Amino acid sequence: HPYWFEQLFSLHQFISWGFLLTSIVFVVQGLLLLKRHGGSQQRENFPANHDFENTVNLVEKGLYRYVRHPMYGSLLFLAWGACFKYLSVLTVGVGVLVTFFLIVTARVEEQENCAFFGDAYRDYIKRSKMFIPFVL
């Protein structure tokens, strides 16, 4: 915590706070859109999932129009936002590891979604980015 408010108006602090605020927007928007438009159904293959994760409708509204995994994107922005609070080899290494594991996790989830939603999800993959609109 000593690094969070040190050199408050420096470039790395602005980047950090931007990432952290974006993280909050992504997770709130993602959850609201899933609850509002996703529907819910218990799936035998995924009994440990929360209700909002077992959607029956492919959500392509709001943030989901541009990003397939806004909640993973939120974790990505959170990790890099924390990393930019104190840039070091260790924090950048952690950011890279978090990014790697989020990509792997998202790929596994995309396979599950392709199996459940079929061609509609494969088309959605072509039209959207994984975590960051217009970028990744």
Quick description:
The chain has 136 residues and is mainly α.
Describe this entry's structure for a reader:
By secondary structure, the chain is an all-alpha fold. 60% of the residues lie in helices and 0% in strands. It contains 4 helices and no strands. It has helices at 11-37, 70-85, 89-117, 119-127. Helix 2 runs antiparallel to helix 3 (89-117). The longest helix has 29 residues, at 89-117. The radius of gyration is 17 Å and the shape is elongated.
End-to-end distance:
30 Å
Q: Tell me how many strands there are.
A: 0
Low-confidence stretches: none
SSE arrangement, N to C: HHHH
How many DSSP helices? 4
Question: Into which percent range does the helicity of residues fall?
Answer: 55-70%
**How large a portion of the residues is in β-strands, by DSSP E?**
under 5%
Please name the defining characteristics of this protein.
136 residues, mainly alpha, 4 helices, 60% helix
Layout: helices, strands, pairs:
Blueprint: H1 11-37, H2 70-85, H3 89-117, H4 119-127
Helix pairs in contact: 1-2, 2-3, 3-4
